[in-house]
Amino acid sequence: MCEVLQVSTAGFYKWCRRVPGKREEANQTLLAFLLLTAEQEEGIPGYRKLWKAAVDEGFICSQNRVQRLLQASGYRSRASMKPGYQKPQPGMPVLPNLLNREFKVGKPNHVWTSDITQIRCAEGWLYIAVVLDLYSRNVVGWAASCLNSAELVKNALQGAWKKRQPTGSSLLFHSDQGCQYRSEKVIAWLHKRQVTISMSRKGNCWDNACTESFFAQMKKEWLSPLTIQSREETHLQAKWYIEEYYNTVRRHGTLNGVSPMAFEQQ
């Protein structure tokens, strides 16, 4: 691993034996208090209320510090806004709805759609991004993380690209207007591969109905009946549903009653 990461062996062991600094120890103590308080209140309070609780307990900290620690740990309040919601940021592009609800596609790797959902776990939230090929409704790429970020979308796209090897100039990629999809990192990644970008109209989930439907089915059929699990366990459950059941076994109504993989092999 040291050779792959280009790190000296001596440097690695020195890092393993390092003594945490005062700031790091203070952050760990503060985070432990915040997560314990959140657990005692059933995950209801947001970072502002948790910051107030920490100050009342005698911690010296700012709201930004509390928010940063909670975000890094993946904590998200039950009362928070739905995943992907962000206040509009000036300068971020909003592209037209080129897909225009034309969900019937005649060939593979011609139209991909994508979205992000969140699953509550014991430690907080797990965010899952998927890339769907509209031709067969096959999940051609997906990624999971404790952070809802542009990197999550990029990882899902990279997995899809590696698996399918499409021709970028003939591919349309459709998503909602979430800041992750409008980020410079994702836009640049798609432009580099000459992919045409399409985005749903603001507040109109029906423009991306196929991906929304996939997440609804995954939660209803598999994830929601389960008890709240750790992120690692939830990640494995999602992996099984997508790769071992949905793509290969689950019969799809719009595909004449066959699975996405079987439809592509016809």
TrEMBL record:
PANTHER family: TRANSPOSASE INSF FOR INSERTION SEQUENCE IS3B-RELATED, TRANSPOSASE INSO FOR INSERTION SEQUENCE ELEMENT IS911B-RELATED. Pfam families: rve, rve_2. This is Integrase. GO terms for biological process: DNA integration. SUPFAM superfamilies: Ribonuclease H-like. The lineage of its organism: Bacteria, Pseudomonadati, Pseudomonadota, Gammaproteobacteria, Alteromonadales. It comes from the Bacteria. It comes from Lacimicrobium alkaliphilum. GO terms for molecular function: nucleic acid binding. Residues 104-266 form the Integrase catalytic domain.
